[in-house]
Amino acid sequence: MQKQEIVSSFQMSMLFLAFLTGSSIVNIPAPLTGAARNGAWISVLLAAAMGGLLLFGVLYLHRKFPGMTFIQYGRQTLGKWPMAMISIPFLLTTFSMFSSILVDIGGFFSSTMMVDTPSFIVQTLFIVLSALTARAGIEVMARMFVVLIVLMYGAVIVVLVLVAPHYHPEYLLPVIPEGIKPVLHGAYIIYGFPFTEITLISMLLPFIRKEDAGTTGKYMLYAIVICSVVLVAAVICSIMAFGPLSGIFKFSVFRLARMIQIGEILERVESMIGFSLIAGSYMKATIVLFILKTALTQLFNLQDDRILTYPAALFGLLLSITSYKNEVGFLETSLIVWPLLSNIMFTVPLILIMVVASFRRQKPKGG
Amino acid sequence: MTMRSRLAVTISIAALFLQTGCWDHDELTEFGYVQAAAIDAAEDGKLELTTHFYRPSGGEQSGESGKSGKGGINIKTKAKTVFEAVRDIPIHFGRKAKWDHMRVILIGEELAKKQNIGDILDFFSRDHEPRDTISVLIAKGKASDYLDTKPLIEHTIGQQMLKMEETTSTYTAKTTHFLLLDLAIQLKSETNTTLVPFMFSPNKQKEISIAGFAVIKDGKMRKTPLSPQAIPPLLMLINQYDQGVLEIPCSDQALADKGMKEALEVKSLVTKLKTSIKDESVSVHVTTKLSGSVAELRCSTVKTEEEQKKLEHTIQNQVERDMRKTVERLQKEQLDVLGLGNSIYRKHPSLWKSWKPTWDKRFSEIRFDFKTEVNVVNTGTIVGTPFSK
After folding, report:
1. Quick check: A245 and B181 CB within 8 A?
2. How much is the ipTM here?
3. Number of domains in chain A
């Protein structure tokens, strides 16, 4: 790295928030309520609590190895080759996640707003934008995403407030008519996406300014709390508006936006809302791409830390175009396989490194 | 500027122009904008879809033949599925239908009785163009005939129907503003019973009226729709009564026997149904709070506290009697349109599971009691004596 880029802990928490809320706010409420029904909000809280535990793990390692990324301290604790063995599936899974975000974006457009536009066109434009942003560096991302997050959260809040005339609070009951099992199923889905992905953020933490070390944990925790609050709100509002249908409608928040009708003045605003929401997916794709190129650079000990951005983006794009033939296959993979896969590939190595690191008493210097 | 930054600026400007649209382009004139659609049963299990399009050049051509309404064009297509019928529209019309601006869906009575209404509406919920906020109506006789009617004050018949439904539900309390989304939710609800606004024509499609309800149970329409007279007390019971008029018999028995009535303008009405379950039996307490003002007086005088009390008492009796009558009729027909089953499911999901199969019978045995609070706020702009006295 020629010039060390740094961001403040507040900016990092904003990146983290974008990373968590990003594509999940558009895609997760529907399958989640489909599985957990009215208990979906409990699932969010359960999964967020698990996410909180993961964050503690990540922060623990960050404190133990300041200035080092997951790959770097993994190498230090486990040794060069074992870590390489872990890193390869870790990276492949991240690539798969990256391509899933792109598939989500394509799927959203092809089934809601731009039906005749081929998905790969939408995906290519998004990936070009993401690659340019990721290459511009984390400082640029941090500054820019604050604006986009405000826009995205603003859009969500506007939708949830303006649809209020259609809410029926009685639809929230009964909370768990079928017992706890559906709720756990829902928690499994939303824990897999986005909460297990928290491990990836360990690749970004070393970019935090040294002086901000004290506030990092606090801000990051706030990000999880805010993310789960908005997910819970989205779930509750879609249940109040759609009742038994909330698991049936894909893209709940967008569907809610289509219902906005304040007199004859404010209606048909969903395309604006749709683009604000999809900005979240763009942010997440960009952050993941940045993580990917950082990980690749460190894994192969490259001098130029930006050289891999474009190849990684291209690889992700090709993966997203070729991985899934249709939506059903994609949904099955992302709702059933993904939580398991990401747990094995992300969480298990994290726990492994934590265990090994806590046994090695001496604190390594520098990074 | 260096070569590099010049290139960047050029690309950015090009992107600005190229990225604002979709993949292809569509001009406004390539589409026909659907205002209303009517679906009827046709021969051998087919559906007949009548689509009412907005005529872009507007109302000037109102002098045309009665076949197409003012500013509107009707296209008829037949197919086994709704979507096939939709895609056949260009054969007759030369433009593709655009559904975003649709106002109402009409379903013919015969079709509603024959086929599950969910099958018919699946397309409108699934496709990305129609909205969940479209109004749904069931039409007496053939639904497509109503689209030939000329709109009275609005530009298209679709808008006319929407406005009729909306204002009737707000000011007259003889129907509700019922959306596609409401229907979809009710079809998925536990009791699977719902009320869809009913449209009929008193004089062979010259005029249309939207009042009363068709009852949909398990996806199909019940034989007889509920008449408009039965609607206000029903709306009171389901707490969908917004504003309306109550006709009350004269307190003077002799005049009342002649059929003399007075009118109250109901300004607000809130009803709560409280279900209590004791072992195997259910009882429901209906509490109604009504407030309104005197709209017409013919025989009563409302000048003292005592007279006010008397009037309120008459109103209270009237409201309770009407509601009881409605409940009795619903119980006789075993139609839980009050959503009692749904509310039991919400509070006691496990009990509901065992009750669900026999719910219709249980519903007919529920004991209802009524409690009504009436508040007559004022007597309008003149004092509380009849003008005729």
Report:
1. yes
2. 0.82
3. 1
